[in-house]
Amino acid sequence: MKSDPSTAAAPLRGAGSPLGSSETVRVVLSPAAAAALLEEAADHLVVHLDFREALHTCERAGQSLSNYAQADWPVGTSLEVKCSLCVVGIQALAEMDRWQEVISWVLQYYQVPEKLPPKVLELCVLLYSKMQEPGAMLEAASAWIQDPDNQGLPEYRALAELYLQQVLLPLGCLSEAEELVVGSAAFSEEQRLDVLQVISIARQQQKHEHSDSEKDQKQNQEDSFHKFLSLLMLLRRLWDSAVSHFVSLPFKKSLLATFILCLLVVRFDPASPSSLPFLCKLAQLFHWIREAMFSSLY
Hints:
This is Peroxisome assembly protein 26. The chain has 298 residues and is mainly α. The chain has eleven helices and two strands; from the N terminus they run E-E-H-H-H-H-H-H-H-H-H-H-H.
């Protein structure tokens, strides 16, 4: 039978102290009450598949454990309960397709990534790696791995290998991977040699891909230049064809066509005396055009 979490809660203020109108009553959950909420959250998650309520229950218990821990509580018990609450909360967020919020949600209870429990960090790395977003864990996992207090934990070696395989290498952070392998005692000599060989192969692939990219870029530039030259040659042929066709027309027909075009565009009266100077200038201009075209061809 589950225990009622409310029976294990104690008010922060004294029983006889008055509350102001803007004050709210806050309760502190004991480890037993938090454990009861953990069991309730697990039931919502696994049995009832009520992921939203499971997350809400984890948040109720986790907030109390984070902010209102009492000195006489067993430290190990409260940390273990909070870690388990985070595990259930991570699973609930993932089930609701809110996995992007996982790392920020967890850090609100631990403040800094260096304080994350190994189990929570492992679950976060695996989740983001599965969703093909390992970069979201780069900063947090790096801070945890580099923290001296974590390097003495029994889980450190497994997490260092996980960080290397699931975060650094997929992201192409080869320098960081090499620094981790060479400078950390978590890797055996055999593991170190294997990882360094993988890093060397990855660097060669990067150089090869970079070289291929430069070749493709150069080839694209050459293709664009050839297309541009072809276009210029085509325009030149079209221009020569138009000029040849215009020159081959008889002079009188060309003059008549130009005159009709002017009538349509300018809309002046050719019988009017004021139009005579314009017609003379038009004929003179037409002669100049023909002479210029003939002089360029011969």
